Amino acid sequence: MKAWLIALLPISAAVLAAFQGFPRCTAVDPDTAKTGDTVSISCENADKTKIADVYLTDGKDDTKVAVTERTEDKIKFQVPSIKPGRYHVALLTANKASMIEQPVVLTVE
Questions:
Q1: What pLDDT was estimated at residue 16?
Q2: Cα(58)–Cα(64) distance, rounded to whole angstroms?
Q3: Which residues contact 68 (CB under 8 A, 6 or more apart)?
Q4: Using CA atoms, how far apart are residues 105 and 63, in angstroms rounded to an integer?
Q5: Which of 69, 85, 90, 103 has the most Cβ atoms closer than 10 angstroms to its Cβ?
Q6: Is 65 helix (H, G, I), strand (E, B) or coil?
Q7: Average pLDDT, consecutive stretches of 10 residues, N- to C-terminus, the chain (109 residues)
Q8: How do strand 32-33 and strand 99-108 relate by DSSP bridges?
Q9: How far is CA 57 from CA 13, 25, 68, 99, 109, in A?
């Protein structure tokens, strides 16, 4: 049993290392906003080398937002003209290979 566990450790370490560079958002401030308001999302790995574009998605439609400021750990954007509802933040990777929906939600009034 111990040999199996020891063999699994390098595989687990490799998987964790692969995901360390992926962008990940942890909070939206404020979490409720109106069209035109500026919203800030706290992220890890949020620089331009990792993220091409930021979107709000309701699960059916993805709406690109206008990013006004970006650092390694924060992205600020203006809420676009969209219908009221709950939207997840989604990030398009810099190589444009995948859209990563984040576990943070913005409510648009």
A1: 36
A2: 12
A3: 38, 76, 77, 78
A4: 14
A5: 90
A6: coil
A7: 54 42 91 97 90 95 95 94 97 92 97
A8: parallel
A9: 32, 14, 19, 11, 15
- C-alpha dihedral sign at 32, 30, 95, 23: negative
| CA neighbor of 94 nearest in space, from 60, 46, 55, 29 | 46
Q: How would you classify the pairing of strands 66-70 and 74-78? A: antiparallel
CA 34/CA 36 separation, integer angstroms: 6
- 76/38 Cα distance (integer angstroms): 7
What is the phi/psi pair of residue 8, to 5°? -75, -25
Question: For residue 51, how many other CB atoms are within 10 A of its CB?
Answer: 21
The domains found in the chain, sorted by start residue, are: 23-108 (2.60.40.10)
pLDDT of residue 22: 78
CA distance 102 to 109: 20
